[in-house]
Design a protein that fits this description.
158 residues; alpha/beta; Rossmann fold
Length: 158
């Protein structure tokens, strides 16, 4: 899903969010929820851990790498081919280590939370079960990671 033309037409810098989610139902809810929260920005979907690394340019494969690093990565933990912990480990030990990674998963397991933070996740959130709660969570994510945090990071990098 890409809503890039609106931002480009206004001359704004395009922001990108990468969703790494294998469950088609969860992915659809996230894409729909983020589409309404991030009008005018690019939302990219990777269906498993290996595809995520390809999209990020950290692994050679069939997926096309993004031209610029994403501004935010929403990462599920239970993924086929390569789990979210390994994806997180590779992101945080690469040139993309400063990209915020928010774990968005169904697991409330304390060991999963501890492991994600040890691997330098920026946040750990449990997916709500209903769309309204998910929409509220995504609005909060957008406000913090895309509006406030993104602006500060860009100023610090210049």
């Amino acid at each position: 899903m890409t809503n890039a033309s609106e931002s480009e037409a206004r001359g704004e810098e395009l922001r990108t969010v990468l969703i790494v989610e294998d469950d088609p139902g969860h992915a659809e809810l996230l894409l729909r929820g983020l589409g309404s929260q991030l009008k005018g920005h690019r939302v990219v979907h990777a269906r498993d851990g290996a595809e995520a690394l390809e999209v990020l340019g950290l692994r050679r494969g069939e997926a096309q790498a993004l031209p610029e690093p994403p501004d935010l990565i929403l990462l599920d933990l239970r993924l086929p081919r390569m789990d979210g912990f390994e994806v997180l480990r590779q992101i945080k030990s690469s040139k993309l280590s400063r990209v915020p990674v928010v774990i968005l998963t169904t697991s409330e397991n304390k060991q999963d939370v501890d492991r994600a933070y040890r691997l330098r996740a920026n946040s750990y959130l449990v997916k709500p079960v209903d769309f309204d709660s998910l929409s509220q969570m995504l609005a909060s994510l957008r406000e913090y990671w895309i509006s406030h945090n993104w602006t500060y990071r860009r100023r610090a990098e210049t």
